[in-house]
Specification:
alpha+beta, D-amino Acid Aminotransferase, Chain A, domain 1, D-amino Acid Aminotransferase, Chain A, domain 2, 9-stranded mixed sheet, 9 helices, binds pyridoxal-5'-phosphate, L-valine-2-oxoglutarate transaminase activity
Length: 365
């Protein structure tokens, strides 16, 4: 590992950036993850030398040899967080050091080098400061930040893991993730496919997890559902998570979420909601829940609400559930009061309209 406190970013501004008018046109209707800002971060790593050639550079395609390791062996992982415009015009992010820590947990699992947390956060600060005009002012919109790392060694041989890597970070103005806003989603219980098994990469935010999930997401859509819900790999019975989001259940006066067994992605939104539960007058509980308990709980009314949570879509209600041999609705299929309260509280902290009692807000500029 390198001691990188001396790592300083070379700044190369984009001479061909978008005009203010072009930028305003993008910001009027940003969608999600479709248009990127004028700059990006790039830092190289070489075994024995550590991190080097740190730069803020114009956003541009990468030139990589077709035999580069990432294309063949998928040695890659990423993070996702947002920069939020506050009412007074300043820009903040939410718990970026938690993303930095998770970035390094992913790095360990993928046999890739860790990036000092301070370099991770500084790189995002530099990117957001440089492209601050790209942080939307529209309520509920944000600048989505996507830091990631790829293996850059060239060659198909057995000499792996790679000895060289590149850390990159890009940014994209974002409306809400699901175009329907807080409209409830319908979910498909995947009993045919598995996202993660014990000892696998389920807790790492790696692209490979997503690559393996698309076939199930496609099946969910073919079944008339919006999203896939993953179950455990062994019995296909215990609820794990939904697509790229963690799940919460309102069970009596408790907020329940599946425990982090190593096959779930440890969401920062999930962690934040567990912390906020007490303040919202709810007990928080982690454990396991079977699909039978989910169905019978909804039928008896014991489970009154279900929602998914993650950085991109914040909190999204789950309105109905379908599996190979079962289907049911959650509550009356509309967003419940606890779901809306949790969402409002989180969004309020992120946009500076609620007190930040946990020091989650990190000022950028
Ligand atoms: C990123 C992600 C989440 C949510 O994590 P947050 O830190 O809350 O954004 C949940 N599940 C998967 C599979 C993810 O990749």
């Amino acid at each position: 590992m390198t001691s990188a406190p001396q790592l300083s970013f070379d700044v190369q501004l984009n001479a061909n950036g978008r005009t203010p008018a072009e930028r305003e046109q993008v910001l009027a209707n940003p969608g999600f993850g479709q248009t990127f800002t004028d700059h990006m971060i790039s830092v190289d790593y070489t075994e024995g030398r550590g991190w080097h050639d740190a730069g803020l550079v114009p956003y541009a395609p990468l030139t990589l040899d077709p035999a580069t390791a990432v294309f063949h062996y998928a040695q890659e992982f990423f993070e996702g967080l947002k920069a939020y415009r506050q009412g007074n015009g300043s820009v903040v992010s939410f718990r970026p050091y938690a993303n930095a820590a998770r970035f390094n947990l992913s790095a360990q699992r993928m046999a890739m080098p860790e990036l000092p947390e301070s370099v991770f956060v500084e790189s995002l600060e530099l990117l957001v400061q440089t492209d601050r005009e790209w942080v939307p002012t529209t309520e509920g919109h944000s600048l989505y930040l996507r830091p990631f790392m790829i293996a850059t060694q060239v060659g198909l041989g057995v000499n792996y893991p790679s000895k060289t890597y590149r850390y990159l970070a890009i940014a994209s103005p974002a409306a809400s993730y699901f175009s329907g806003g807080v409209t409830p989603v319908s979910v498909w219980l995947s009993t045919e496919y598995t996202r993660a098994a014990p000892g696998g990469t389920g807790a790492a935010k790696c692209g490979g997890n997503y690559a393996a999930a698309f076939v199930a997401q496609r099946q969910a859509v073919a079944q008339g559902c919006d999203q896939v819900v993953w179950l455990d790999s062994h019995e296909h019975r215990w609820v794990e998570e939904m697509g790229g989001m963690n799940l919460f259940f309102v069970r009596g006066d408790k907020l329940f979420t599946p425990a982090l067994t190593g096959t779930l992605l440890p969401g920062i939104t999930r962690d934040s909601i567990l912390t906020l539960a007490a303040e919202l007058g709810l007990k928080a509980e982690e454990g396991r829940l079977s699909i039978e308990e989910w169905q019978s709980g909804c039928e008896s009314g014991e489970i009154s609400e279900v929602f998914a949570c993650g950085t991109a879509a914040v909190v999204t209600p789950v309105g109905s559930v379908k599996g190979a041999d079962r289907a049911w609705t959650v509550g009356d299929g509309t967003p419940g009061p606890v779901t809306l309260k949790v969402r409002e509280e989180l969004v309020g902290i992120q946009y500076g309209t609620r007190p930040d009692t946990h020091n989650w807000i990190h000022k950028i500029c």
